Amino acid sequence: MDYAQPYVSHTGGAVSLVSDDRAVPRNKLLSSMKAAAFERLRPALHTVDVQANELLGEAEVAPAFVYFPNTAVLSVLRSLGDESYMEVASIGHEGMNALPLFLGADRMPSRSRVRTAGTAIRMARADFIAASNEDGLLSVALRRYAALLLADVERAVVCTRFHTIPQQFASWILYSADRVGRDDFALTHDSVASLFGVRRATISEAAGDLKRLGVIRTGRGRIAIHDRAQLRAAACVCYGKRNDP
Ligand SMILES: [Zn+2]
What we know:
This protein has helices at about 30, 35-40, 100, 125-135, 135-160, 165-180, 190-195, 200-210, 230-235; strands spanning about 15-20, 45-50, 55, 65-70, 75-80, 85-90, 110-115, 120-125, 185, 215-220, 220-225. By secondary structure, the protein is an alpha+beta fold. The protein folds into two domains: about 15-155, Jelly Rolls (Sandwich), CATH 2.60.120; about 165-235, Arc Repressor Mutant, subunit A. The chain has a four-stranded antiparallel β-sheet with strand order 1-2-8-4. It has a four-stranded antiparallel β-sheet with strand order 3-7-5-6.
């Protein structure tokens, strides 16, 4: 993909601009800024709809645009050296997808793909680097987010090493619901299995157990939380400890 050109999704369709003037973004990095500082950034910000599985940035490439999710959730995906990828972090309305550029990298180390469709605020890379290099409120918010994301990645290392897949899956459902702000959302066993780096049958088994207990409902590529208290009991201790500024 030629990132020097205007963005075109991997499916061949251009992302759609929704609006440039929504008053207050849901994205917390942007909404935490003081009004005057945000107003200076506003001309460079464009709200776009992003679709599930849409590729927003490729590894080893300097992206044309960076994204601050509103209702969308993005996956940070690391190549396993073949055609497969594993999710190493996810980004919702608490963050953005190009911290390495803010920290001085000239390209992204990982792939950035839409996990849950929704809206995000898009900014040209050059505008983002110029704004984040100013000693202002955006750089303060990004530094804080970098520390939180690093802590979250450290927690995830422990989680994947010591907590079972059913526990991790239950945490993941809860956290995903929090991110999208709804108790039902799109999900396929294939996509979750690839995020966890396990076989599809392993996720189907974990989902089947939760379904039999009446904790969740699934069907038509969606999942719905039916009993949040039981789901919390099934989740590992990591849920509730993840960093969400
Ligand atoms: Zn865990």
